[in-house]
Specification:
By secondary structure, the chain is α+β, with helices and mostly antiparallel strands. It has 19 helices and 7 strands. Among the domains are: 132 residues, no CATH class; 36 residues, no CATH class. The chain starts with 13 loop residues before the first helix and ends with a helix. This is Renal dipeptidase.
Length: 391
């Protein structure tokens, strides 16, 4: 297959280009030699490796290249071993949580973590994971939270909500174990709303089983993983290459592309899937069948992929708020550009639904909260006026 060159990455740092070349299935030696000759800032290279959460993978990727400084190799050899112990600890906790929930007949679907590392990389030590994400049916959410508290977990964040908007505006809540220092994210949706997505029952019917632990644990089917991982990565602007590398490995697993296409069309995610494939092929040399490229590639997918290069040109951590204004504006525009026309209409209409900030601005008794619907435009203008006066 001819190499695709549809993206302009001339402003991506040389050190990041080296990183992307190293994690390819077959790094091109002549490219590596050329980059090394241009002069690599190894301190910046190391910073990028950590930022993109690829440090445990570097141990195997660097050891065979003589131009890599010895101290860099030693550092990532240590990181590989450290991550191995962390992932083993996380795997044990995953088995424990799964066992407790099974006894109460609450089904769990693990979304990432050790099961994803084993599936995509063949070794849980090669992918980082700071927490365990799992999905439960909405009807079991309250019982699931009680079980976690009984296991010693403490809710780590609380959602401000009004009129039940948490059910669709948000998608997970975080729990933390103060002794084990383990973090769990319990999901009732795959993504924040508004928007349609597969229900738990549908996902459960297509589930896969993992034997990464002593007892079977369940995770999303491959096509559902493609839907979930591409949508998740796009929502974060692919600002960490680990998410895109997951796609690179996933597409090598003989997906049923017809099923994947049908799923993405149903939930208005076809351009998002195309964006991921354009990025993966251009940056990592992913091998895609011609028929797949023909179906998924489009001008819009390529435009979305080029928009995501912005996150690679800049060292962006979307969780470090407040974001610089130019980054915040770009991200808002990028998120809106990912939406289909029906999704954009639903997104705009969602602003008419009351926000918790409305109750902070004009407290009303709970029995009168329905008044926030007609008052919503007035409160929005009032809040904007107050903000302008304060600045």
């Amino acid at each position: 297959m001819a190499e695709q060159n549809t993206l302009n990455i001339k402003n991506v740092p040389l050190e990041l280009k080296l990183l992307m070349e190293l994690v390819r299935q077959e790094p091109r030696i002549e490219r590596l030699e050329q980059m090394n000759a241009e002069g690599i800032d190894w301190s910046h290279f190391t910073e990028l490796v950590y930022h993109h959460r690829l440090h445990p993978l570097m141990n195997s990727k660097l050891k065979h290249h003589v131009f890599i400084p010895a101290q860099v190799k030693e550092q990532f050899a240590f990181e590989y071993k450290r991550n191995m112990f962390l992932m083993l600890q996380l795997s044990a906790e995953m088995e424990r949580v799964n066992s407790v929930f099974q006894k109460q007949e609450i089904p769990l679907l693990f979304l990432k973590g050790p099961v994803l590392a084993k599936l995509l990389y063949g070794d849980v030590s090669l992918r980082t994971s700071s927490d365990l994400d799992f999905l439960v049916p909405m009807k079991d959410l309250e019982q699931a939270e009680t079980l976690l508290q009984e296991m010693g977990y403490v809710k780590d964040d609380y959602i401000d909500t009004i009129l039940g908007d948490w059910k669709w505006r948000h998608h997970h809540v975080t729990y933390y174990h103060p002794v084990k220092r383990t973090k769990l994210e319990i999901h009732w949706r795959l993504h924040p709303g508004p928007g349609k997505e597969p229900g738990f029952k549908e996902l459960w019917q297509r589930k896969n089983v993992s034997t990464v632990t002593g007892r079977p644990v369940y995770y999303l089917g491959k096509e559902d993983l493609f839907y979930f991982l591409t949508s998740h990565g796009a929502r974060h602007g692919w600002s960490r290459l680990r998410w895109l590398l997951d796609i690179h490995h996933l597409v090598q697993l003989d997906l049923n592309w017809n099923k994947a296409a049908s799923l993405m069309r149903k939930f208005h995610r076809t351009p998002t899937g195309g964006q991921a494939l354009v990025l993966s092929e251009n940056l990592f040399g992913s091998e895609l069948p011609h028929a797949v490229r023909k179906h998924w590639y489009s001008r819009r997918a390529e435009r979305l992929a080029q928009d995501a290069v912005f996150y690679l040109e800049n060292l962006i951590n979307l969780h470090n708020e407040p974001l610089p204004e130019h980054i915040s504006e770009h991200h808002k525009q990028h998120l809106f550009s990912l939406m289909s026309k029906p999704q954009k209409v639903l997104f705009i209409l969602s602003f008419l639904y009351p926000y918790p900030e409305d109750a902070e601005l004009l407290p009303l008794p709970s029995g009168l909260h329905w008044l926030y619907f007609p008052l919503r435009p007035v409160l929005w203008v009032w809040r904007k006026t107050r903000k302008h006066e304060l600045t």
